[in-house]
Amino acid sequence: MRGRSEHGVAVVDFVLVLVVLVPLLLGLLQVGLVLHVRNTLTAAASEGARYAATVDRGPAEGAARTRQQVREALAGRFARQVSAREVTVDGVPGVRVDVRAEVPPLGLWGPAVRLELSGHAVEEVLP
Prior knowledge:
About 45% of the residues lie in helices and about 25% in strands. The chain is an alpha+beta fold and about 130 residues long. A 3-stranded antiparallel sheet has the order 1-2-3, covered by helices on one side.
């Protein structure tokens, strides 16, 4: 049987454990969210660069393709800053698609995570 001095100890223990576990869980979820967004944006930028590098397309079409894929996979706010331009990739003409986005924090406070990613592709040429 419990003594009089032990009443309410379980509640205090529960609160002390939550103070540690909730921020840890939110941190893990934030890392998972950032990695998911980063991988999705990288794949979309690479796909947009490959699309723009085909014979009958240009950088503007690659940027549009990247925006479309980001909107379908994530949300439109991640597709606001997409640009594409012609570059030289290892000495040959190519296309580079750049994506900039911010991943908002999950908790009530904290900075957003800024991501700057790019995808490259070598331009196709007619034989």
